[in-house]
Amino acid sequence: MSVSSEIFNVQLRDQTGTAASVRLRRTGMVPAVLYGHGETNRHLAVPMTEIKMALRHHTKTVTLQGAVSDTALLSQVQFDHLGIEVLHLDLVRVNLKEQVEVEVSVSVQGESVGVRSGGILLENIHSVTVRCPAGEIPDSLLLDVNDLDLGGHKTAADLVLPPGVELLTASETVVVHIEKPKGGGSEVEGEAEEVTE
């Protein structure tokens, strides 16, 4: 649930377009556009290794240094058709105190009672939308499932929200539920009484 900010050592791009982007990616850099706050759009090149590190840490805000000194929100990441290689980044200038709306991943913690009874924990959604200061975006939101029994569920309202983080996803949205085991349910009352008409 820590808040992390990665550093991108950026260079300016003097050429844009598909061919230039392909050449750039061959050098281990990814084309990016920085925009927002009414300032001029800047065409940048960001090292692929730094992007992969930020994605691995679920980082939302990044510190830009090198050709540009700024703080930016990782707005949009475009992947190739296999979802592996990053093709392009959209970066939005932010003030760390300004309120932003972002998607944050859910981190399920604990072993539920229902799973220990043979049930299956299913995640209905893997992230929720929140509003908070750009400098305080959590890496993930915790959801404790230890007390979750067969047939039970947890909603977005059960997520642990750090101070200053407001949930925008509907609070009644089901995040996880425990499905009863199929077939071997003789100990579960009422399962054997199937009515066939």
Notes on the structure:
This protein has 197 residues and is mostly beta strands. It folds into two domains: 5-94, Ribosomal Protein L25, Chain P (Beta Barrel); 100-179, Beta Complex (RNA Polymerase Alpha Subunit, Chain A, domain 2), CATH 2.170.120.20. 11% of the residues lie in helices and 42% in strands. Strand 4 (61-66) and strand 5 (70-79) form a beta hairpin. The protein is elongated and about 60 Å long. The termini are far apart.
Task: Please describe the topology of this protein.
Blueprint: E1 5-12, H1 18-26, E2 29-35, E3 42-47, H2 48-56, E4 61-66, E5 70-79, E6 86-93, E7 99-109, H3 113-116, E8 120-123, E9 127-133, E10 140-144, E11 153-155, E12 166-167, E13 174-179
Parallel strand pairs: 1-4, 2-6, 7-10
Antiparallel strand pairs: 1-3, 2-3, 4-5, 5-6, 7-9, 8-13, 9-12, 11-13
